[in-house]
Amino acid sequence: MTRPLRVVAAMSGGVDSAVAAARAKEAGHDVTGVHLALSRNPASYRTGARGCCTIEDANDARRAADVIGIPFYVWDLSDRFHEDVVEDFMGEYAAGRTPNPCLRCNEKIKFAAVLDRALALGFDAVATGHYARLRTGDDGLVELHRAIDGGKDQSYVLGVLDQAQLRHSLFPLGDTPKPEVRREAAARGLLVADKPDSHDICFVADGDNAGWLREKLGDRAPNQGGAIVDESGEVLGRHQGTYAFTIGQRKGLRLGRPAPDGRPRFVLDIEPVSGTVTVGPREHLAVDGLTGIRPRWCGTVPGTLDGPGVTVQLRAHGEEHRAVVRVTGEKSAQTVEIDLLDPAYGIAPGQAAVVYDGGRVVGSATISATRRAAVSAR
């Protein structure tokens, strides 16, 4: 057994973080439960399985801490969360990009603000209920690996963590399938054993991203409407704001008339300044190259990765794409060039490209540009 650590267990009020806290204590660590108050105006009750940061969640976390037998506190990080996650989310959509707020929250809140505060208070590590595994490599560096339960694996949203953060992290659930976690919670007497998982974006409780953005952005949006056009420039319809669209979107276009060949149309491009949204057939969404900026490496900065196990994942639960990855430039301005050996569809600037070597996470980068794959004539 490793030496006992002083551990902050980040407790969301869900089953995963509760069992993670219980396991950390059972492993002999000195554990303190902390619930993060991330909303400035928390709702009294969650809507189904959506949302988080509610009063109900805080109460569930407190009850779980009582059952486990650990101290419990609430840390108010709502201002930091609003600035680093919510404002970033709004700004990215307003600029025509598609952000992932879960990655940003892990980077800026859970493993930066929380970890920094924990270390300042004399704690050694932060434990969370994320499904991922940590190993120490032959070079002594801490490696981040996929979880045993592929359906729940969350290594993608942890791909922003660097070596210093990984050295102070614990993921007690990485080797356990989710059904076993629920059974263990019930056996431990945790009332959250059957609580539904949260889905979608936590601060958009009803799941209506477009409606939420329309309400929050208001006059801050670069345009209040524009044209929906086909690839020839023909106007097919109008919209109320580019922030309601993402690359690859099919539903909600409201064009009123089908394509000449009867096939569905998809969003191919978004130009936020002019407000133009371009649509076309799905095959024109194929991408075989990406450029990434602001990379975050879990360990040593790679040069070129082109082995048989090198893959890139472009969505939280998306498929892996075989790839060749090249890192160029100085540390302060590195660029990641990615050639996809398996074309991807519906990839937008702002999304994260997380690089894997087998099951190990190498790092991540924010997509700044895509290269469309050649489309053969029908």
TrEMBL record:
Interaction with tRNA as annotated region, ranges: 152-154
Enzyme class: transferase
Keyword Disulfide bond annotated: yes
Places the protein is found: Cytoplasm
Binding residue positions for ATP: A10, M11, S12, G13, G14, V15, D16, S17, L36, G129
SUPFAM superfamilies, per database record: Adenine nucleotide alpha hydrolases-like
Domain tRNA-specific 2-thiouridylase MnmA-like central: 217-280
Positions of transmembrane segments: none
Source organism, top-level taxon: Bacteria
Keyword list, A-Z: ATP-binding, Cytoplasm, Disulfide bond, Nucleotide-binding, RNA-binding, Transferase, tRNA processing, tRNA-binding
Positions of the tRNA-specific 2-thiouridylase MnmA-like C-terminal domain: 288-367
Residues at the site labelled Interaction with tRNA: H130, Q351
Nucleus in keyword set: no
InterPro entries in the record: MnmA-like, MnmA-like_C, MnmA-like_central, MnmA-like_central_sf, Rossmann-like_a/b/a_fold
E.C. number(s) listed in UniProt: 2.8.1.13
Sections of the chain in a coiled coil: none
Disulfide linkage: C105-C202
Active-site feature positions: C105, C202
Catalytic activity, reaction form: S-sulfanyl-L-cysteinyl-[protein] + uridine(34) in tRNA + AH2 + ATP = 2-thiouridine(34) in tRNA + L-cysteinyl-[protein] + A + AMP + diphosphate + H(+)
Functional note: Catalyzes the 2-thiolation of uridine at the wobble position (U34) of tRNA, leading to the formation of s(2)U34.
NCBIfam families listed in its UniProt record: PRK00143.1, trmU
Family that this chain belongs to: Belongs to the MnmA/TRMU family.
Protein name: tRNA-specific 2-thiouridylase MnmA
Gene: mnmA
